[in-house]
Amino acid sequence: MSTEAADFESRARAFYDLKILAIAYEWDVVTELSRGAMSARDLAAKLEVAERPVTALLMGLGAMGLVRYEQDADRWEPTEKGSRFMVTGSPNNMRDVVRFAEWQFDALPRLREAVKDRTIVWNAGAHYLKGKQATGEQDKRDVFDGALDVSAIAIGKSVMTVFDFANVKRVMDVGGNLGGVLGTIMEKFPGVHGTVFDLPHVVETTKRVIEKRGFSERMTAVAGDMNSDTWPTGYDVILTTRVLTTRDPHEIVHVGKKALEALPSGGRFVIFEEHLSGDEAHPVPPEAVWGYVFMLILSDRGGSYSRDEWTSMLREAGFAKTEVIAKNKWAVVIGTKA
Ligand SMILES: C[S@@+](CC[C@H](N)C(=O)[O-])C[C@H]1O[C@@H](n2cnc3c(N)ncnc32)[C@H](O)[C@@H]1O
């Protein structure tokens, strides 16, 4: 089979990857192996399941480069990647990413309806988007926030490739979640002080995370609704990442006006979004596929706006100067106040 056909086929069957990962986390397979390499039979005995499914699971994880088999010793052990991503307690572990994906998976059998009839098929996600708690369960909320936080480091790094924070003193991150993006920027730029502005139920957790990560001296968290509350002032940059794509132009202009009001003259509103439509969106990297469709399952508005659309929304909000810098699938949109 050609590489192209094999790649296509593995995409078509990618749900297997997700389910294998989900079970491996549930059974804590890699954590178990990290305590000492062992045979499939010993692992099965520890997990109190049959050897056959455990062997199949280990083979699947092996194919993903997360565990490896030492034939001579008949033992399985984690690879370096497996140790980082799958061992409980590892600072880079991806457990929430997988749990978040699995949670969306429950809604995917109805994706056709979302595409055809604009039906919201992931109600828990829709609740979260509207600023309500994802469900009544703290656990689910933590999964949502935790998954975002894992990818926030990459978002912070991407923003920094096109926006220089060297002379910036104070940044407010609107919809800044647990402070992952801001923290990444602050690590690189020790002169930057920052504030996360997010909904009250999120900020409760953000405050704990700030303390845990040792950012208390430079980072604060303020609770509020970006649409209806007055925004804190005193920031030379207001940042917002992955918040506005799921909003319609009317709301984006409204949020833009709020930012303009809160900024001093010369202050900048920096918007990072993962999906840009139009020429800039091509070629998109393979990992972008999910992002274009994800928003359909939890929102009946918003989408991938083009360079021109972002520019006109910021102009309408009152920004004197606008700039859109597009890279691969994502874009940074900057509005400067007169
Ligand atoms: C998709 S997440 C993005 C989080 C973070 N900026 C990132 O890129 O990782 C959207 C964030 O916006 C927050 N949010 C949603 N509606 C909001 C509102 N009306 N006011 C303030 N924050 C809001 C959510 O709580 C969540 O933290």
The CATH class of the largest domain turns out to be Alpha Beta
In terms of quaternary structure, what is this?
A: single chain
Helix coverage percent: 40-55%
Sheet/helix structural class: alpha/beta
User: How many whole angstroms does the radius of gyration measure?
Assistant: 22 Å
How is the secondary structure organized here?
Elements (H helix, E strand, L loop, with lengths): L2 H10 L1 H14 L1 H6 L5 H8 L3 H13 L3 E4 L4 E4 L1 H7 L8 H11 L5 H7 L5 H7 L8 H25 L7 E5 L5 H9 L4 E6 L1 H13 L6 E5 L13 E5 L7 H14 L5 E6 L15 H10 L8 H11 L3 E7 L2 E7 L2
Parallel strand pairs: 3-4, 3-6, 4-5, 6-7
Antiparallel strand pairs: 1-2, 7-9, 8-9
Helix pairs in contact: 2-7, 4-5, 7-10, 10-11, 13-15
